[in-house]
Design goal:
This protein is of the alpha/beta class. The protein is about 40% helix and about 15% strand. The chain has an eight-stranded parallel β-barrel with strand order 1-2-3-4-5-8-9-12, surrounded by six helices. Strands 6-7 form a two-stranded antiparallel sheet. It has a two-stranded antiparallel ribbon with strand order 10-11. Helix 2 runs parallel beside helix 4.
């Protein structure tokens, strides 16, 4: 009897996005100065022992508000690492809680290194690892040999990998837009992933679990990347607080079988976690504010993929 194939990340993600009717991914980025008064404890300095528990209480409350409304969440590892060992424990418990709620989890860690170091980072993709997630962001700028250690564990586990190709920050042009051999560097990186992307195609949806990061702030470049990687999932930062509109965020998506645009997820963190009216010490007012912020993003992105 052949072994059962592991769950396929792209199939699971796209099927859930189709079911929900929107591609919103909620970023779990606990900016300490922005934590609402309702959840603050002690000084909220990174080294204060009360800070990590305050962050955990806050983000667990966020998960309670969004768990049935989105397909995926994206914790940013730096915000937990700054809290030391306490923050890593919080990250571990939040990832487990999110997955228990049937949310997919992409850890935004942007890892990339050589040999055994890359293999150690890839432990995040091991279901039997100490802190398993469903997908991981990785940095390609040390070369293709530094990406390979992530691909094999991802294939074995049915996990996802998102490679930085065109990021949303203004300074991305400093290197990513540099012309090399007649093409922008971001295009060369995208093209270099084309063959490997095919290895990760899901049988149910035809989408690949080898995806890329393409910022919503550069919609024309997203369209170009899509021509190079027609079946790669896009993880799209830059929507909302960074200024990109919903239609720009889904510019690299394509029509799916239901007529709506699909092909990735659009991340929003501050817009969901820290709306202006959530800066309160009233629990019910905070809950209403978070739910309303989530609804606004869902409606906005839902309209964008339906046009």
């Amino acid at each position: 009897m052949s072994p059962t194939a592991p769950p396929h990340f792209a199939d699971r993600l796209i099927q859930r996005v189709r079911q929900l009717g929107h591609p919103l991914c909620v970023g779990l980025d606990p900016h300490l100065p922005l934590i609402p008064p309702l959840f603050r404890r002690g000084t909220m300095a990174p080294a204060d022992p009360q800070t990590a528990p305050a962050v955990e209480t806050f983000l667990r409350a966020v998960l309670d508000r969004i768990a049935t409304r989105v397909a995926i969440v994206k914790p940013q590892s730096a915000f937990f690492e700054q809290l030391g060992w306490r923050g890593i424990q919080v990250l571990d418990r939040l990832v487990a809680e999110a997955r228990a709620c049937r949310l997919l989890v992409v850890l935004d860690a942007k890892r990339g290194d050589i040999g055994s170091t890359a293999a150690a980072y890839a432990a995040y993709l091991d279901p039997a690892g100490a802190l398993p997630v469903d997908a991981l962001t990785v940095n390609p700028y040390l070369g293709r040999d530094t990406l390979a250690p992530f691909f094999e564990p991802a294939a074995a586990a049915g996990a996802g990998v998102f490679v930085l190709v065109k990021t949303s920050n203004a300074g991305s042009a400093d290197y990513q837009d540099r012309v090399v051999d007649g093409r922008p560097l971001f295009e060369l990186i995208a093209a270099s992933l084309a063959e490997t992307t095919q290895r990760f195609i899901g049988a149910a949806t035809g989408w690949s679990s080898l995806g890329i990061v393409a910022g919503a702030t550069y919609p024309e470049q997203s369209q170009r990347i899509r021509t190079l990687l027609p079946r790669a999932l896009f993880l799209v930062p830059g929507y909302g607080e960074q200024g990109a509109a919903a239609r720009d965020a889904v510019r690299g998506f394509v029509r799916g079988p239901d007529g709506r645009l699909e092909g990735g997820v659009v991340s929003s963190s501050r817009g969901i976690l820290f709306p202006t009216d959530a800066a309160t010490d009233d629990l019910h007012a905070w809950e209403r504010a978070i739910s309303a912020a989530c609804d606004r993003a869902i409606d906005d992105l839902g309209r964008a993929i339906a046009t």
